[in-house]
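Notes from the 1:1 (GR / supervisor)

We went over the backlog. Supervisor wanted to see one worked example end to end before approving the batch request, so GR pasted a single chain during the call. The sequence is below; no edits were made to it. Supervisor asked that the structure be written out right there so they could see what the output format looks like.
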Amino acid sequence: MKRDKFSYAKYGYFFCLPFVIAFCLFTLYPILYTVVIGFTDLKGVGTTTFHFLEEPFKNFDLILHNNSFRVAFKNTVTIWLTNFVPQMLLALLLTAWFTDRRFKIKGQGLFKVLFYMPNIITAASIAILFKALFDFPMSPLNDLAVRFGFLDAPKEFLRSKTVARGVVAFIQFWMWYGYTMVILISGVLGISPDIYEAAEIDGANRTQTFFKITIPNIKTILLFQLITSLIGGLGMFDIPKSFLEGQPDNATLTTSLFIYNQAFSGSYMYNKAAAASMIMFAIICVLSAIIFYIMRDKDEIELRKIEKAQKKKMKEMKQMKKGGIA
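Structure output shown during the call:
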């Protein structure tokens, strides 16, 4: 009887304890500390003392009126949209290709591995690779362009702002389209095959099946992918930092790189870096809320309203019956 009453549930808390401690020390504490110093005058290496500002939002006002921050935010949004839209379109196309039973594709596993492989390569390695490809005066791209007559002499491609942003966007696209494809495929495989069989019997073609069955049934997956891409895109740091460090002329400067420069590249303006971080956090929260609202399931909301109205009507009828009996 004693053995039956013995509970092992408490041991779960002991197993969770290492993660909780690590999370509090390395995630929660830095976040709270960042929030605090955004309202202070903290700056300088080794400084531990700080004072709260008389104007609490002074750092935020300075960041919002900082021209470099505005340029960085514009670059971040441009690069994210430039890589996210084609990334999602290609991932959807590949998903439709791999999941359509009427396409008998051989070696699907190999194709999926090849498409996903760029995502497992470190960002620093990819940055070095593309820097070598576009380098001046000696690079594979320049050598091929001169050899085949496209250029008379080697060209410094990365001096162009448009080319620099385009290359960074392409790297982001190349790294993540395979990951997006795998996520979407997993969502499609969760749809009941009976729905596709019924559509095939009714004579639906591939396009109708994809847009009328597949897309509506993976709406939640699309929402997840959009939100995670938004967070990752607006927090883009490793490729712009490792590839061109914001050059040429701040064309590839992103908000994360701006925050890094404020905090660690000579100026050590920890208060301004913290304020910029919180501004980006607020922007991401607002945009995420808007996306959630736009992609909400309207049919489910209407169904809940109907169910709520029916319950209210039933409750009123019961009250009326009780009143009649009394």
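Supervisor's comment: The first helix runs from residue 2 to 5.
Batch request approved.
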